[in-house]
Amino acid sequence: MIYTVTLSPALDYQVRLSDNFKENEINRSVQENYQVGGKGINVSILLNNLNTKSIALGFVGGFVGEFVKSSLNELNIEHKFVEVDGITRINVKINDKDSESAINANGPVISEDNLRSLYDMLSNLKDDDILVLSGNIPSSISNTIYENIFKLVSNKKIKVFLDTTKNYLLSCLKYNPFLIKPNLDELEEIFGTKLKSNEEIVEKASQLINLGARNVLVSLGVKGAILVTNDKKVYHEHTYKGNVENTVGAGDSMLAGFIYEYDKSRDFQSALSFSIACGAATAFNKGIATKNEIEELIKGGKKWE
């Protein structure tokens, strides 16, 4: 079974403006959309669109938490969220003529009892399960929660996929995550330097493998992605050409596509190719890509070279 952990789910409220955002004025939207959000949840949604079951874990509370649960119920996605006091966060995404901005809320306070409930669920994972740890850690939770989860499952043969930011990621490498997925900006932040070539990207990804990661998938936006495996093999795949509608969830879709295809084929090249298609299909549409949208892109899409 695949389990996704989203420590801070959200309602993503997306607003599109016809012109650029104007400060100190009333801005009128031309389009609005709201959907359940959170990186792990996005992974579960795309897997579900590919007819692959997963169980979504995390913390929810209040009327927004009810929206999160009902949204997943409508999609027939199983979830076992821990109920918390307070209200699950609402994130605002603003797309204007020339830019894309976001206001991400903090979310509710997570208590020690809430954490214990999550740990109890994770302790029931079995050999050969897949665990996806994705997203930042809420301010009310110890920065070591991902490390604690790794320790909790370390005695089992579980593939852990980790997609988080610099400090949380680096502290978990010693637990040998099966795959980490920094984007280029995050990789540059980790090493404190600009990476100007694929060779430099591969070099830094290889350093992360030396620190403990088993495989490193670096998403490069319009330049596709580079995968460096535990035996230092390098795979590079270009992405598809198309009109970007919305980047929210594109990286999560890439991760979900990789998990889906690798679990099926055990082939890194095909997993990378399929992950690129999933990420692009989401970017070219208004929500997490459907199976049909992904298949149509693979069938008829053109790639950058």
UniProtKB/TrEMBL annotation:
One of its GO terms (molecular function) is 1-phosphofructokinase activity. Transmembrane segments: none annotated. It catalyses: beta-D-fructose 1-phosphate + ATP = beta-D-fructose 1,6-bisphosphate + ADP + H(+). Residues 13-292 form the Carbohydrate kinase PfkB domain. Pfam families: PfkB. Its EC number is 2.7.1.56. Keywords: ATP-binding, Kinase, Nucleotide-binding, Transferase. The keyword NADP does not apply. GO terms for cellular component: cytosol. PANTHER family: 1-PHOSPHOFRUCTOKINASE (PTHR46566:SF1), 1-PHOSPHOFRUCTOKINASE-RELATED (PTHR46566). Catalyzes the ATP-dependent phosphorylation of fructose-l-phosphate to fructose-l,6-bisphosphate. Belongs to the carbohydrate kinase PfkB family. NCBIfam families: 1-PFK, pfkB. This is 1-phosphofructokinase. It comes from Mycoplasma anserisalpingitidis. The lineage of its organism: Bacteria, Bacillati, Mycoplasmatota, Mollicutes, Mycoplasmataceae.
